[in-house]
Amino acid sequence: MSLLILASASAVRASLLRQAGLDFHVRDSRVDEDAVKKSFAGSTDDGDTDALALRLAEEKALAVSRAEPGALVIGADQIMSCETRRFDKPRDMIEARANLLFLRGRTHTLHSAVVLALDGDVVWGHSARADLAMRDFSDGFLDWYLKTLGEKVKTSVGCYQLEGPGIQLFERIEGDYFTILGLPLLPLLAELRERGAALS
């Protein structure tokens, strides 16, 4: 069975793989995500945002794969978009508030991608979307929410975790739970079983 490596410092992705029973190592790819985004020639439409998420996942997997011959490397990334905007994690609480005010009453999309690389080549990739509709919450709720989460609100691109108070932001969610968390897990596990990297 090939050595399996997760090319990510994401504690959430590592936890998902660990809970699924996989034996793997973690190695941060240290890819400059901002540089990849700036060099991307696509538009801000959904199809190109899917492609950008895949590109970022590929760059992460390839960066580690080139240094780890023979290992099967998992790269993953997620981008959030709403209308014609793409979002990054908020830099401070002021930006977090502004982002949530923009998302209030709107539906945004999470574009999640996962790839496998082997010996410096991408050998498999998959992308998926989830649509999340934020309710038209009150300013009072927003004040309470930001006070309750504090600095933790800056750890997520959407300023929420569904397993906490963030679930109260929403009126409708359409999509796979693992896609929302940033790792389309079921197709990844199926591919790992096909390659003998997970028990079938």
Descriptive overview:
- The structure is a single chain.
- The chain is of the alpha/beta class and 200 residues long.
- The chain has helices at residues 11-19, 33-39, 46-65, 93-103, 139-149, 177-181, 185-194, and strands at residues 4-6, 25-26, 72-82, 85-87, 107-118, 121-134, 170-174.
- It has one domain (4-194): Maf protein (Alpha-Beta Complex).
- Helices cover 36% and strands 25% of the residues.
- Strands 1, 2, 3, 4, 5, 6 and 7 form a 7-stranded mixed β-sheet that branches.
- The two termini are 12 Å apart.
Distance between the termini: 12 Å
Q: What's the level 1 CATH class?
A: Alpha Beta
Low-confidence stretches: none
Q: Structural class, from secondary structure content?
A: alpha/beta
Number of strands: 7
The helix tally amounts to 7
On the 0 to 100 scale, the average pLDDT is 95
Largest sheet composition: 7 strands, mixed
Amount of beta strand? 25-35%
